[in-house]
Amino acid sequence: MQIHDEAKEESPLSYVTWEQYERAKRLHPSQCADSALNLRITPRWIGESRFWYTREMRTEKGRGKHFIVVDPQKNTCMPAFDHNRLAAALSEAVGRPIVPEALPFAEFSYMNGDRAIRFQAEGKEWICDLTEYRLLDHAAGKQCSAAERLSPDGAWAAFVQDCNLFVRSMEDGKVIQLTSDGVAYHDYGSQPECRLTTLTERLNRQPPPPTVIWSPDSKKLLAHRLDQRQVRQMHLIQSVSTSAEDIGPVLHSYRFPLVGDEHIPLAKLLVCDLEKQTTVWLESEPLVASPLSPLTPGMQLAGWSTDSSQVYMIKMARDARCVQFAVADPHTGKVRTLLEEKSDAFLSQDLYSLGACNPNVRLLSDGSFIWHSERDGWSRLYYGDGRTGKLLHPIPSDYGVVRCLLSVDEEQGWVYFTGGGFEAGRDPYYQHLYRVRLDGTGRELLTPEDADHAVNLSPDLKYVVDTYSRVDLPPVTVLRAVDGRLIRELERADVRMLLSMGYQFPERFAVKARDGETDLHGVFVRPFPFDPSSKYPVVDYIYGGPQTINTPKAFALDPDGKRDPLGGAQSLAQLGFVVVIVDGMGTPYRSKAFHNISNGKLEEAGGLRDHVAAIRQLAQRFPFMDLNRAGIWGASGGGYASTRALLAYPHVYKVAVSACGNHDQRLYLAAWAERYQGLYDPDLYQEQDNAGLASNLEGKLLLVTGDLDENVHPAQTLRMADSLIKADKDFDLLILPNRHHSLSTDRYFLRRKWDYFIRNLLGTEPPWGNQACGKQMVTHGKNNEGSGYA
Predict the structure, then answer these.
(1) Across the strands, what pairs with 369?
(2) Coil, strand or helix: which one is 9?
């Protein structure tokens, strides 16, 4: 009671009401995503330049939608068809009322010169003529499933069956077997089992698509045979069985190489020719099959030339400090190395670290190529001679950070890319669309608004659909000509209902890093309601991985409600906390020197020293921030970083909630840890182990893990717990049954996180005290399966 009273004297808000918890719950992403409209506009291209998209709207019964078709050449934007007539026809066909704003399909395609559409609804495929609006119950053709990869021309679907590669004709269903000698763990087209979602897919019986890359002309497949036969096996015990027949524990095993392991997944590349029905092996040592790519896992370091005549491969060394760029003849398998780069620090050709949406290399039809490198200290593109491998000049010629090579218009001589840091006075992390000449000159800014831009180029490279936003600016989607000229505004997101629920625009800030010179950029969210004369506890939301940033730059609400870019800041603000998010040195999208801070020093954990410097500067700028009550939380790399912060800076952080943290990189994925820390050496890996700091614990620590986490094994958390026990330290441990790696939006975890900060930073109890009153919060709405606010 004494602690409770002292906390009340510090702030009149050191108590929490039921109403605050209800508001916090309402701002859970799965609850509030439906309260905003048109956050994401995705064009579906029709031919070379026309497209349709879905427009969201409010109706008397809630949320509705219409399909809109845009013709950029005519500058028209209109309904894709008569929604009222189609709804009436479909209602009659299925025998139940269907409203025009809730047509039961999400995709459609035009037929017969736009005189009819095809769509799937009510378990059937339909064709509707757009003159009389007659519906035909059409025999559904074979669709490309989630376990297949469609060719560019839509004629073939590649899939894996019994460890071998097959293709299926989308026209007549004919199946061609491309390989025949695949066996378990030495198979074709598979993905490394050390991926984030391996066990989840296995339990849900959702096989991933094959690891193949179609040639642009759809005549060949670049594939691999993946060897995982001697890779270490890891094991998880599913203690709470979901089987009604057998409630006993279930063993799940999978291949997962740890730091220093002799054997890692290796991929041998081959080309399958559909017309000739031949297989050609590329004459190269197997590639290190990285599971980390957002593209095709294990194949992100290979691709085709634009004219389908050559294959390229990026042969990254295991420690990512040496890379070779090579080209191969798909007819003979002959391989020629064009260039090699070496570095004392990790190289960034690994697309996972770039966050690229496309490979940042191209083989052009005249034999030249575009290469990505940070050889001069900045992320840039280079134009190279395909005969000699010599890099001739950078693209563009001035400095900034190239993020994603989108397309090359060889006929007009333009390179289209996204990047940041080129515009003075703007947040360097904002992505803009640029084009530049192949000779590196004439860089043009095509998206001028001071915001983060998500762009989609038309197939003919004449138009751009651009959605721009900031954390404090809801998304606006516009249509531009490819030279940047504004043609029309398409949609402006409606967030009025979201704001009425208590959502607050995060506030942007810039502070200095540990060196007192380098700018750091972040956001914070104030408590609601806010009293500037009060003092509020601070929660630092952190991610500790060197491969990405944590601070959101675009509008921070996921339209699908499945992730929370703000790390729960909106809910914590309703409970009386200031939440801060900032990216310290050692993270990407700035200079290479900025990024290299984490090279061989994963104990830097997302720039922890910079986090300390940042919140101290903010507290001086904003006196309502009470650094005597500072906490920190994070998941995965943030679980590691938050525990590290509590142990390394006990004078700063008093409370930490650490979910599924990789507390010792020796027990984590070789492809990730060895890339940033380096190949295993006992001395090199000693300092990064959180267990070595266990005796430093002074504050309150909650360790959390899911018992089916196939990415960061629960052993990481239990090993950390063991070190704290040996140091005779008090801490809290929460193990969640049947949870995987993603806990950040798990409802039970969120409520426990809120409670932990309330008890240990606010110094009071949640409204139910120790739950002695027996009162429980009840959840409402969707996505409540498997958990709830207890």
Answers:
(1) 363, 384
(2) helix
- Within its chain, how far is the Cα of 577 from the centroid? 27
Dmax over CA atoms of the chain, in Å, equals 82
Any residues with CB less than 8 A from the CB of 99 and at least 6 apart, and which?
59, 61, 64, 87
> Phi and psi at residue 490, in whole multiples of 5°?
-95, -55
Q: If you search the block for the tokens 């929490």, which residue do you land on?
A: 16
What are the percentages of helix, strand and coil residues in the chain, rounded to 5? 20, 30, 50
Residue 64 backbone phi and psi in degrees, to 5? -135, 180
Q: How far, in Å, CA of 8 to CA of 2, rounded?
A: 10
CA 530 vs CA 12, 504, 534, 571, 578: distances in Å: 11, 11, 8, 14, 10
The three-state secondary structure class of 759 is helix
Tell me, what DSSP letter sits at residue 208? P
Q: Which two tokens stand for residue 530?
A: 């806010």
Q: Residue 335 and residue 328: Cα distance in Å, rounded? A: 4
Note the pTM of the prediction, 2 decimals: 0.93
Contacts of 681 (CB under 8 A, 6+ apart): none
Backbone angles phi, psi at 269, to 5 degrees: -85, 145
| Element of type H or E holding 671 | helix 670-677
Which of 509-515's residues contact partners 24+ apart within 8 Å by CB, and which partners? 509/618, 509/621, 511/582, 511/613, 511/614, 511/617, 511/618, 512/613, 512/617, 513/584, 513/585, 513/607, 513/610, 513/613, 514/584, 514/585, 514/607, 514/609, 514/610, 514/613
470-506 pLDDT tens trace: 999 999 999 999 999 999 999 999 999 999 999 999 9
Separation of alpha carbons 335 and 284, rounded Å: 7
Give start and end residues of each alpha helix (H) in 105-249. Answer: 198-203
**Which of 294 and 551 is assigned the larger pLDDT?**
551
Range scoring the smallest mean pLDDT among 453-462, 580-589, 775-784 = 775-784
